[in-house]
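Example A, followed by Example B.
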Amino acid sequence: MLRHQPPDNIAAGALPGVHVLVRTDDVAVVLHAARCYAEGLALEMRIALRASRSGFAEHHETWEAVQQMWVGVELADGTRLVSGPLGHGVDDPADPSAFTLQSSGGGGGGRTFAQTYWLTPAPTEGDVLVVVALPGLGLPESSVVLPGAALAAARAEAVELWPWEPDAEPEDGPPTEVEVPAGGWFAETAG
């Protein structure tokens, strides 16, 4: 799963600072967090809107535009990776050591949307250039450089919470029945 998402048994180190990639009078893209792991780098993008888009049609249009965001990175050795609209990075199963950049989730509504991108393996040397474009919301291509020394320092702060273990195999049989809490609103309503 490390090819697709950060490890769940690690508390990542975080790159300090605020990184506004691009903004207009009405929309901004901020690198809200760069979480550093020995295995990779999670880039948490926040799309902030000045005015709420709370109607269903407006919300749907905005979410579609957010999903059309282009995110890319350029590593110190010149390697370039792109996670394009609605896509996940190109994953080459023939070479598990190759770098990949993939969308690993997002959501939001109203004035704030978020998308996270997972770069693996972790770039171990030099600066990382992060590039974004959000044409569906009128934002041009823009970039920020994440200093290699700061990334290395944040990666060194990551803490293993416990050794990783695979998920337990599901047990056969019917699901366990859940009891309604006794003596209250739920008992009156669902009981």
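Example B, a separate protein, is given below in the same form.
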Amino acid sequence: MEYSHNDAELIQQPIGYWSWAAYNAVVTRIRAALAGIGATQPQWWVLAQVARADTVRTRDEVSRLLQNYLGTGSESMEEEMDRTIVLGWITEDSEGRLGITAEGREFYARAAALQDELWAERHAGISDEEYRTTLKVLQRFIHNTGGHAWHQ
């Protein structure tokens, strides 16, 4: 890979631009790939939270966990959760408990395999050490600027 600047120039580059450009490239790629199999990224998040849960989660629990993912508001997340129910991927009982359907489990497996492929694509040529260092540096930027971030 050829970099856009030499090392001396890179240290003068704005982190805001490069973190935005990385975000934009990664999220655009993920969303396009998921759209190709018939899902939005928020629908994937909902499905993954239900499919991976050790114990049954309620709508409120999933909504709280996902309410701030990539700027997705709680109202929008509620709509995406409703859509996963309409699509037949999850069910909701009268007490708000969410369950995965057989169709949802099948779709989850397909989407999870796609996510694994996308992860490998993004990480090509990047060692675990480089990745870990990158995340630690980004977390330090967030801390140094008084920001808050959390990801499950």
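On Example B: The chain has a mean pLDDT of 90.
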